[in-house]
Give the backbone structure.
Amino acid sequence: MEYKKINEIPVKVHGRTIKDACPLPIFWSRSGIEVNVRANELWVDIEVGCDYQEPWFVTEINGAFMSRQMILKGRHKICLYRNLNPAELRNVKFYKDSQIVAGEEALYVTIHGLETDGTFEPVEDKKLKIEFVGDSITSGEGTYGSFKETDWRTMFHSSSRQYASFIERALDVESRVISHGGWGVYTGWDNDIRSNIPSIYEYVCGIAAGEENARLGAKEQNDFKAWQPDAIIVNLGTNDNSGFDQPAFDVPGVGPCKLRRNEDRSFLDEDIEKIKSAVTGFLKMLRKNNPKAHIVWAYGMLGSEMNLPICDGINRYVKETNDNNVAFLNLPDTTDETVGSFGHPGMVSQKVAADVLTVYLSKRFNMKINGYNGNI
Amino acid sequence: MEYKKINEIPVKVHGRTIKDACPLPIFWSRSGIEVNVRANELWVDIEVGCDYQEPWFVTEINGAFMSRQMILKGRHKICLYRNLNPAELRNVKFYKDSQIVAGEEALYVTIHGLETDGTFEPVEDKKLKIEFVGDSITSGEGTYGSFKETDWRTMFHSSSRQYASFIERALDVESRVISHGGWGVYTGWDNDIRSNIPSIYEYVCGIAAGEENARLGAKEQNDFKAWQPDAIIVNLGTNDNSGFDQPAFDVPGVGPCKLRRNEDRSFLDEDIEKIKSAVTGFLKMLRKNNPKAHIVWAYGMLGSEMNLPICDGINRYVKETNDNNVAFLNLPDTTDETVGSFGHPGMVSQKVAADVLTVYLSKRFNMKINGYNGNI
Amino acid sequence: MEYKKINEIPVKVHGRTIKDACPLPIFWSRSGIEVNVRANELWVDIEVGCDYQEPWFVTEINGAFMSRQMILKGRHKICLYRNLNPAELRNVKFYKDSQIVAGEEALYVTIHGLETDGTFEPVEDKKLKIEFVGDSITSGEGTYGSFKETDWRTMFHSSSRQYASFIERALDVESRVISHGGWGVYTGWDNDIRSNIPSIYEYVCGIAAGEENARLGAKEQNDFKAWQPDAIIVNLGTNDNSGFDQPAFDVPGVGPCKLRRNEDRSFLDEDIEKIKSAVTGFLKMLRKNNPKAHIVWAYGMLGSEMNLPICDGINRYVKETNDNNVAFLNLPDTTDETVGSFGHPGMVSQKVAADVLTVYLSKRFNMKINGYNGNI
Amino acid sequence: MEYKKINEIPVKVHGRTIKDACPLPIFWSRSGIEVNVRANELWVDIEVGCDYQEPWFVTEINGAFMSRQMILKGRHKICLYRNLNPAELRNVKFYKDSQIVAGEEALYVTIHGLETDGTFEPVEDKKLKIEFVGDSITSGEGTYGSFKETDWRTMFHSSSRQYASFIERALDVESRVISHGGWGVYTGWDNDIRSNIPSIYEYVCGIAAGEENARLGAKEQNDFKAWQPDAIIVNLGTNDNSGFDQPAFDVPGVGPCKLRRNEDRSFLDEDIEKIKSAVTGFLKMLRKNNPKAHIVWAYGMLGSEMNLPICDGINRYVKETNDNNVAFLNLPDTTDETVGSFGHPGMVSQKVAADVLTVYLSKRFNMKINGYNGNI
């Protein structure tokens, strides 16, 4: 058995992080490492800081789900597999299933290295890269757990049963996720206008709290040149919509914030305008950093009331910039049969949404759709 | 056996036509008659004029599909059923499965009466009325026939396997269809700008050709007060989109018409503007005639390239009128597994689209969704 | 337009009938004619005798369902299609959807000829022939109509939505159906022991009543050499099972017949023995007439209580004959979600059963399974 | 936080083991513990002995899958959840996902206790108890992992994606699993006749190897009175079938063993007789120990060639014993779309089989079938 530092291995790093860092910080949902290895066994050396919401990790072997577990605070040597035929080349992916938790200052994750009795081989790049930007839906909240659950906890969140995961398999692509539950394009679900994704989009993981994450590089500007997506899927608007039905939030230094409805329940012009502008502005930010990506605003898994305002924001963007490489797509609404825990889309709803996006992307990029076999 | 004229029977008339007319003209797809009857047998007395494209009719009993047949030119007494238990109250629906055919001057259909050995009872109104306005998709083109078929013929068109049909069953509602293959909101698929639905929307069946249809009342103003829908589903835009990829059409008295793309394949501003205006204008027309209907522009079963322009047209309408009782909804795209004949959505694609609309409408109008049993 | 007698056309005849007869008698469900034709239009000249239960016919074009209609008493020229591109070779199938009705003396069907403006080309044989022998399930009772229907009428029976139909498409094979509702391998559902399929199996259509059917050849010995199936699917036992729960039937010349249960509801040995012997005997009859066919007793769509007695009958057959080219296969039971009219398997249940048989046959005969496209 | 020994807690023990033992031995797949708890967090104190094939465990909360992980050799305190609302009563199940491994002498698992900051409440018994007896299919081999995997390892085996698991949820019942890959009712897949389930059925876990398991009670007679199933599902025969196609196995003290085929590939009478007798004999053993259980031999997920011999064995049992409380049921065969890893039924195939059994059991025991929601 030989231990190697993570930066000594031909590892494919998933998710935004600091290039060549050792230990390697893992911030976002679906972030982690992927290796090709010929070995009898493989272990990962991982370090977790945590106060309240433990990170959950998933192991996939040859593209199939193997394990999902909570990683407790501390440094651990975790076995990814043991006693498989060492002559076979095996693809192993180990990634954070749960999302980053805003405000959890103690929470951080780093991967120090891998230990194996075998040898590593390079992981080939996929033909297409997709970035998924979103909220709780994109963080897979509700994809694990009984429909009875009401606690907002990492154990019920996932990227392994979320739509990006299904699209990855169907189209054989690489994905990144930038998302946080409750956040919007303009405001959070509770009218806290600080909870907006654009404000943190340009940093490695601007949402990560605490000194350790800062030290690890979370607050640095993201190096967009290092990873340019072919497509960006933006699934935002659900929490902005929620703001119209929630009480005001007293934002420090700003005062009470509240999105308002007219008496007929339509949106107050002045308030919906804020969201439209935020949509337009976010598209500009996305384009600045991702010059060639096809941007799809894909929305609707928890109601579609924001369709028209979002499209207005997109149309303004197109008009102002003459950039037509953007699109809008509705994702099917969640139903009683497809809902998961705490009223969020379950695995089935995520699969239905993934199918719609898969068809769209396969046509746009002229790609074959893989069938699923009997396991996922 | 007793023969009764159609206006002597407590018949529920489906589709736009002339109130109390006898014989009763049948114009649109999904138009026809519905009766409740206690009888051993039931016959319909129908007259068809036709030169080339025969009308096809479907019989449903107690909500289940029974028969689909071509009706040839001439007057026929057609048996809807025989030798069923006369003690049972039975709901029988006999409707035109195929769409009206623009330009087919000889084509008309009238129902003269019914013959039975039993008694009729009134048909109760459904709780919700929905109007479906569209093109070939709403005319169910492609829902019958092998994927090999390429002839544009009524036999491959239907309303029995089209999304309105599935929604009717799922939500127990009443529907009307106003649709024609190849037509758009601004222009037809071939850039013939006369093929636009708004130009004929306000007439009973403005699309019907020939003297006989005129005599039967097709060109009369529609009596909107007599049937006010709770919801209108507009599925237009697919043919407008097509215009950008088709050669110019020389419209008599107008000259060559053609929607154009820029070099990067985006739409020429001047041309897409025509469609946006048409969307806005059509919404105004719909609202004028249907003051309380919830209007949903539901689009996307054959590509979604028009999402943003359509939404721009809708947003302008909202801005100009302050009417927020409109919405936009994407329907899932047709795939290799769901396509029917001549490249159009097959029955499965129509069912998938119906499911999305059913969920939307059930939430909007707080209605229960019926399961399907083993037959359709 | 040219009229040709049916025996002057290179027609493929489906179902047991009299070779080269003109007019051609049509007896069993799924029986009829198939032609390849290049023509603008095609008409069939059909004659029906009928007192109470009209025969229903289905037209398929290029393998896709087009029309289903009742054919009334009399001689009719029925249009199968009109105005399709005459340059295309088109496969047209016109077959009896409804089963033969035992006891309906007036009922007969013959096809006299076809009329067309085009030319016929031969229909190639399929690679595999399958005979389906059964009862109401194989007669597709319940596959049309609302679950509310309780009348036993041809309009609710079909071969177009029955499992043989789905298997034909999935495996591209040719099928024949020998079946009648209520009949068993030993006794009918009501303990009328005359209603057993073996008693009529060796005749062209031994179940057909009346002088006209006799004159047409129904009572003749079937010419087994002319059509040897590669597989025979026997779906019998459901009505034999029913006999244990029905009152005695007074069979003329025999006296009261009744299958009995013990107090613990198990079958009385003496009575279940009759069914086991009938299974063994029927297998011998099938083998005598079909020396090379793989025989599968496929049962269970309305309960599986007869599994063990049927297998006992089969095992005895194997022991007595040393013929191992027989098998038993359970078909999935019908559920609340898959039931059709009058408590019988609906279209969905038939599709589920077809899938099980399709997988079995595809492995046995090493055949590819075709996917369905968006229409059926 | 308070630590309690496992025998001090109102724990529901799943799977055959030693009553009130502390530590509690965990032998079979799907064996483990279930508690109802009101607590902020819950930990389990587990001990594992292991040389080569680590045991895998699954945690379910409120009936939903949460975690799946390998447990390494040694004694571990594993967190089942943290920081969930302590006011809520929560059902937590922690069970061995992987099967017992015959021949792995070092392998044993015991649970010592639980630690929590909350309180336990009793777990109510389910209305129905079902015992599943089988081979690799019942051990869920192939239900995890890519179809590429060929290693026989616990990581690819499961009870969480196996049919018993789906039936438990659908019918809200309690289940036990007695199964081992490669074993049969008469012989193992490789003609090793020692690998037969009847030989170990009457012991707590007769298949467990090594001194530690013996010390823990594995070789003791099972206390059948303590847990009487309402139904027993026997899924055996697949490996007996395999013996006909495998070379002879030299069984120590017995000599070469081999099941043989005739030239026409049918089974040699003398050899198939051994399996039939084994079926009959095993049914007698099952009945002796489970006087009231409804016994269903449910077979066919990897071919159905043994249907008739199995039924012969069952019919002999019925004849000899006059016990009719037994049945045979075919489970649908695995297809290219439903296969999992190393050619075994994948999760989808297991779900399809579970559906057939669920319908059967729901009718037999008059139970409602629960729908699945969007998660599993």
In short: Residues 128 and 173 of chain C are 5 Å apart (CA to CA). DSSP finds seven helices and 18 strands in chain C.
